[in-house]
Amino acid sequence: MPSEIYERGLALRKEVLGAEYVERSFANADAFSTAIQELSTEYCWGTIWSRDGLSRRDRSLLNIGMISALNRPHELKLHVKAALSNGLTRDEIKEAILQVAVYCGIPAGLDSTRLAREAFAELDGLD
Fold first, then answer.
1. Same domain for 62 and 118?
2. How far apart are CA 28 and CA 56, in angstroms?
3. What is the pTM of this model?
């Protein structure tokens, strides 16, 4: 039986990333990958994202920087889209990526800029 933290995480994950994305992630999970979906839902979303210490907007800003620095393209596109719904503007996302470029290197900044543009195009129906 799912815990209260898991249920809170699932609801928040769907709110931030979109119910369709989360449901598809679970539907595509198999015996091997279900565990990571559950861990992410409970630990990341239920324990950390639901804390009061930072706003969703601030968490999104941090995620853009960290995910860009770690070169995780799939997650970056997902979190760029989420950041917009969490209150960041496209200009603020651009500024975050410029910050990444200075501290993590131009290749990280260039890749992150390209991925953010792809995310914006998908949201704008231009993909």
1. yes
2. 27
3. 0.88
